[in-house]
Amino acid sequence: MWGERRSTGAGRGLTENRAQTPIDFAVGASVFLLTLGFVIAFVPTVFDPFAGAETALPAVSDRVASGLVSDLLVASPVEPAVLSPACTVAYFEGEEGNATLAGMAGCPAGVTNDTAEQFGLDEDLLVVVHAMDEADPIGNASTVSIDTRYGTHAVELRRSTTDSIRVDRGGVSVSQRLVSIEGTQYRLTVWVW
Amino acid sequence: MRVFDNRAQAHTLEAFAAAILILAGLTFALQATAVTPLSASTSNQHLENQQRAVANDLLETSAANGDLQDALLRWDPDKETFTDSRSPSYFTGGGPPNSFGTALNESFGDRRIAFNVHIHHGPENDAETTLVSMGAPSDNAVTATRTIVVTDDANLTAPGYENTTLASLSDGTSDGEFYAVDAATGAVYDRLEVRIVVWQL
């Protein structure tokens, strides 16, 4: 083709001899623009894992769970996750804890405070202690009869920041811990909305 | 004229060169970042933290109520196995048949999380005995450890050996051998370091 064109078009002029320059330019520009478009579209997805979701941060529920099982409810900080019977009762009994029992048993300060306030949160919060193999822990808190030095208390191991917490809302972050109360193992789950 | 003739696909070649440069830059940026949507991973940081916390709590609570020590002493000294008379000498499909094993299964196995349990013992904790082995951990595995002190007068818990103490095994009064050797002359037999490795399947 080249040879043919050169032979027939010899002397016709400069532009004829430049061959496929416009096509060349079109292909070159589109290849470059396609690549650039792909890169610009792709780069934001690289940062997806770091973009904070609408939910409360997982770190928040994790901090509440840690604070409960290694500080507020334990008999001794040396044995995290082994809950003190009296402090557990003091925390879970009633709507707002049992301050009298917490005082008598010498539980850590803040056991009977509002949990969200204690950890400096604005969010709604639900704490449930349930059986290890419980598939639906939100509505199935364990009710345990706990012996303390100040009498036996039957307590439903569930505490929330507000009376009627709406559990069907999205944007929840959940953390779990394993705890033992009087030698029996349970799971402690914390939801933060 | 000849000069213009030779230009041919210069723009196309130039565009490919530019495209390769841009893609190389992007690839370099991806390789330099730790976590991207393209990283091969079965887990994320929050899940790993949860698994580590649950594994630590499991060891703490089991150590507190004695389940962990019972599981470590469930050893058949004659056949030198954890699994009664079956082979291999460690468990592969779940925890041992006692409270510690049930807790392991309920916290991990039932949720499709695999676990290995190794016991480190000896003077430098350099000897290793396997209690549960479910395979090679993935890159996103987490580990939890707890040290248990067993005493000379501790009884084995394997069926049929409930009256055998560690001291009687080490001084030859009873037949067979415990997996750890008597480390001290006093009442302490050895410190056993239990290590759980947990990873998402």
Structure overview:
The complex is a heterodimer of chains A (193) and B (201). Chain A is an alpha+beta fold and 193 residues long. Chain A folds into 2 domains: 2-50; 58-192, no CATH class. Helix content of chain A is 37%, strand content 20%. Chain A is built from 7 helices and 6 strands. Chain A has helices at 2-8, 14-17, 21-46, 58-72, 85-92, 99-105, 115-118; strands at 125-130, 143-148, 151-156, 158-160, 173-181, 184-192. Chain A is rod-shaped, with a radius of gyration of 33 Å. Chain A starts with a helix and ends with a strand. The model of chain A is unreliable at 1-13 (pLDDT under 50). Chain B is an alpha+beta fold and 201 residues long. Chain B has 2 domains: 2-32; 45-200, no CATH class. Chain B is built from 6 helices and 4 strands; from the N terminus they run H-H-H-H-H-E-E-E-H-E. Chain B has helices at residues 2-5, 10-32, 45-65, 67-72, 99-107, 166-170, and strands at residues 113-121, 127-132, 142-151, 188-200. Chain B has a 4-stranded antiparallel β-sheet with strand order 2-1-4-3. The model of chain B has no long low-confidence stretch (mean pLDDT 85). At the A-B interface, helix 3, helix 4, strand 5 and strand 6 of A face helix 2, helix 3 and helix 5 of B.
Please name the two chains that share the biggest interface, counting residues whose Cβ lies under 8 Å from a Cβ on the partner chain.
A-B, 47 and 42 residues
Helix coverage percent of chain A:
25-40%
Low-confidence stretches of chain A: 1-13
Distance between the termini of chain B: 68 Å
Please provide the ordered H/E string of secondary-structure elements of chain B. Answer: HHHHHEEEHE
Describe the largest sheet of chain B.
4 strands, antiparallel
The fraction of residues assigned to DSSP E strands of chain B is 15-25%
What is the number of strand segments of chain A? 6
How would you describe the shape of chain A? rod-shaped
Give the topology string of chain A: H per helix, E per strand: HHHHHHHEEEEEE
Assign the structural class of chain A, choosing from mainly alpha, mainly beta, alpha/beta, alpha+beta, or little secondary structure.
Answer: alpha+beta
